[in-house]
Amino acid sequence: MASILRTRAAPFTRSLISANRPGVSNFSRILTRKYTSANPGTGETPPDPSTKSSTNILALVGIGAIVVVGGAFYAFSSNDTTAKSTIQAAKVATNFVPSKTDYQKVYNKIASLLDASEYDDGSYAPVLIRLAWHASGTYDEKTNTGGSNYATMRFAPESLHGANNGLVVARNLMEQVKKEFPWISYGDLWTLAGVAAIQEMQGPKIPWRPGRIDGHEKDVTPDGRLPDAAQGQKHIRDIFYRMGFNDQEIVALIGAHAVGRCHPDRSGFEGPWTFSPTTFTNHFYKLLLEEKWVWRKWSGPKQLEDKKTKSLMMLPADYALVEDKSFKSYVKKYADDENVFFSDFSKAFSKLLELGVPSSQWVTPEPWNMKTLDEQADK
């Protein structure tokens, strides 16, 4: 997500929005949109240790230096994956978990880091969606391996897979959050980052819940499980069907290409999908259907560009959506109605983020809706 489609690391997202969508506050537009359809066109502040909430401190004390699970004792070490995983499991087993309020604080910290004038189009949000997507999209339904549960992208060779090129930017950014909230697992942190990124870019609410644990190097997934943006319909179905998605869900998920851009030094591909790559809308579908797309003449990999402005791009796997009868029916559906797209995307993305996580690990039976910064400010 670096695209949903494996642009060998191209960013998994992109977006275009109408400048006056009903129900979106001016404050939100100022906060999240540096690049809009009306104006086509990161700074990282280390966390202050003194700002840790008392709740966070109590959580750390409660978890303690020694955890008892299944009769075994594990010494806590911030560098020991086994200890980290055991602690997370212990929190679930004993019902000793941070509250929703604590996770909201993590969300807020992530949201505060999104605005970045020196990165891409002024926001880290698209690359964080890609991080959440690529951390979850390795799931194999038949073998029940991969997915977001173990956060295995922390380890080589998965961190070095071509599809994950450039995601070190997102992982390093999230280390700022991890230092302030060390009790959260990487799997929960990365997926919550994707939720925050979508919601703060004026996208739909994404139901989310915690419970993922940090795994080991032995849990690293093999290369080739993420979509290859240079491929067509058969490849797309093979990849997504393996995860348990159908055609409708496939098209909905690829709609995240409404935001972000591809980078030649990561995927080889270049450019944004839409005119406003930091606002989440249905314009990926509209442009796919309404613009005239031609093959770009350049030295890079095969990709399309819009004939009119030559400033936008589509990947071969994107264009495959309008060359396939089943896929195209959903492209038309989402191009016609953004609300329908938002609803379907929300369900599919929430499902994606939970792939590979045993139901016994969830700390709440029903996912939560985390509040955006705007919603909290209004309240």
In short:
One of its GO terms (molecular function) is metal ion binding. Its EC number is 1.11.1.-. This protein has 14 helices and 7 strands.
Notable characteristics:
globular, 379 residues, two-stranded antiparallel ribbon, mainly alpha
SSE-based structural type? mainly alpha
- Poorly predicted regions are 6-79
Strand order of the biggest β-sheet: 5-6-7
Known CATH architecture: Orthogonal Bundle
- Helix count, DSSP H or I runs of 4 or more residues: 14
Find the CATH topology: Peroxidase, domain 1
| Run of helices and strands | HHEEHHHHHHHEEHEEEHHHH
Report the CATH C-level class: Mainly Alpha
InterPro entries: Ccp1-like, Haem_peroxidase, Haem_peroxidase_sf, Peroxidase_I, Peroxidases_AS, Peroxidases_heam-ligand_BS
Pfam family, one: peroxidase
EC number: 1.11.1.-
Organism: Clathrus columnatus
